[in-house]
Amino acid sequence: DYFIRATYSIDDLVVDPDGIFKFGEPKVTIVAENNTSATIKITEAVFLTSPVIQDGIPVEVSPIPTLDWGATNISPSDWVVEVVDANGQTVWGGFADDENSTKLVKLPKEQKSVEYNYDNMGDDLIPGKIYRWKVYASADASFQQEPLGWKLISTSEDALGIFKVVAP
């Protein structure tokens, strides 16, 4: 069994986050002597502006960075911001593990910048540690009879929002 990672390079494209959110990472099972194929949906990425990795090196930031992003042809209803540690554990934002998949750091569509942990709901970032941040573009889908009333229409690229925290 192999997970499909179609967009590890920074190319302004991501695997459709709604499919991953609902069904998990796309994967394929390879069996000897069988040709296997899989279909995945690709969408335009949310563009991160700061902090972002520079020439393969995590950019250094203060323990309370400001996260900035933009979007090109994406028209969300709102944004969801998430920061994870090097082990993939969410330290701030993202989605709750509840029946409504509550958006923990939900920002209006007009906002494209946020200070880390402005709501005091996250963990302190530890100097010397590396983190990754993402932005999800969410759209109202209640008219489409989506169970949650919304769906994810895009996200930022995994390899772009990587930073290292330095002491103030």
Strands, helices and their partners?
Layout: E1 2-3, E2 13-15, H1 17-23, E3 27-28, E4 42-44, E5 47-50, E6 59-61, E7 66-70, E8 78-85, E9 90-93, E10 106-108, E11 113-115, E12 130-140, E13 150-155, E14 162-165
Parallel strand pairs: 6-14
Antiparallel strand pairs: 1-3, 2-4, 5-7, 7-11, 8-9, 8-10, 8-12, 12-13, 12-14
Question: How would you characterize this protein structure?
Answer:
It is a single chain. A hairpin with a 4-residue loop joins strand 8 (78-85) and strand 9. The protein has 168 residues and is mainly beta. It is 4% helix and 36% strand. It is globular and about 55 Å long. The chain has one helix at residues 17-23; strands spanning 2-3, 13-15, 27-28, 42-44, 47-50, 59-61, 66-70, 78-85, 90-93, 106-108, 113-115, 130-140, 150-155, 162-165. It contains one helix and 14 strands. Strands 6, 8, 9, 10, 12, 13 and 14 form a seven-stranded mixed beta sheet that branches. Strands 5-7-11 form a three-stranded antiparallel beta sheet, with no helix packed on it. Strands 1-3 form a two-stranded antiparallel sheet. The mean pLDDT is 87.
Give a quick summary of the entry.
The protein contains one helix and 14 strands; from the N terminus they run ββαββββββββββββ. With 168 residues, the chain is mainly beta.
What does the largest sheet look like? 7 strands, mixed
Mean pLDDT across the residues is 87
- Taking the alpha carbons of the first and last residues, their distance comes to 44 Å
Number of strands: 14
Order of helices and strands: EEHEEEEEEEEEEEE
Q: Give the C-alpha Rg.
A: 17 Å
The secondary-structure class comes to mainly beta
